[in-house]
């Protein structure tokens, strides 16, 4: 799978509304056949920072995502709400779901 984590710095005046602002893009992406997950979290230390954790089945699914109409729309509608260009970590891993964190096993 292609595993991606990205940090978005949102303009302070838009930070509380970010779930609403990004909703259409989020829902469309989650509806892609190759999307495994697409989840936003808000930083506990910086209320203007949101972290996106997303995964796609494979490189073809990732390519389909960036070529989709909703991605092209987001390229126009998302940046006006940002303080800076998002930071990203993107890599391929040989699995298709989350693994358990054995060091913190619940028994």
From TrEMBL:
It comes from Amycolatopsis alkalitolerans. InterPro entries: ABM_dom, AI-2_Isomerase_LsrG, Dimeric_a/b-barrel. This is Antibiotic biosynthesis monooxygenase. Keywords: Monooxygenase, Oxidoreductase. Residues 2-91 form the ABM domain. Gene3D superfamilies: 3.30.70.100. The keyword rRNA-binding does not apply. It comes from the Bacteria. One of its GO terms (molecular function) is monooxygenase activity.
């Amino acid at each position: 799978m292609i595993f991606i984590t990205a940090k978005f710095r949102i303009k302070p005046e838009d930070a509380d509304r970010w779930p609403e602002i990004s909703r259409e893009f989020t829902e469309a992406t989650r509806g892609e056949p190759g999307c495994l997950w697409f989840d936003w979290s808000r930083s506990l230390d910086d209320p203007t920072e949101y972290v996106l954790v997303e995964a796609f089945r494979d490189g073809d699914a990732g390519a389909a995502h960036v070529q989709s109409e909703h991605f092209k729309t987001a390229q126009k509608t998302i940046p006006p709400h940002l303080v800076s260009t998002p930071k990203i970590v993107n890599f391929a891993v040989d699995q298709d779901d989350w693994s358990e964190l054995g060091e913190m096993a619940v028994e």
